[in-house]
Amino acid sequence: MDTQTLISFASSLLSAAAVVLVAIIETRNGQSRKRTEARAARRAEESRLSMEMMFATCKLATVTAKAVTGHKTNGDVEDALEESDRAQGQYEDFKTQLAAQQVAKV
């Protein structure tokens, strides 16, 4: 082999190695981006459920205040309890889903 052929071969190898390295980096970046997006989706869902639970708690507190001060609560108590149960059930489902996803990763 002459020097020119050797230099050309080495140059081709370096180019190929660079292409492979870029492909590996892009794959890892894509995987990282997917994990970040999944985490953001979980945080958004948890925030939404937390807000629903706060709303249910506020409703229960309002009904309790009405009852303590002697105001008529009519169907407020049942409505507040149903809202609270619904919000708690959704949050428990969310936690169960997260736990199942974590187990499935293992």
From TrEMBL:
- Organism, per UniProt? Anaerotruncus massiliensis
Q: What is this protein called?
A: Serine/threonine protein kinase
Q: Which residues cross the membrane?
A: 6-25
**Superkingdom of this protein's organism:** Bacteria
Keyword list, A-Z:
Membrane, Transmembrane, Transmembrane helix
Q: Does the keyword Transmembrane helix apply?
A: yes
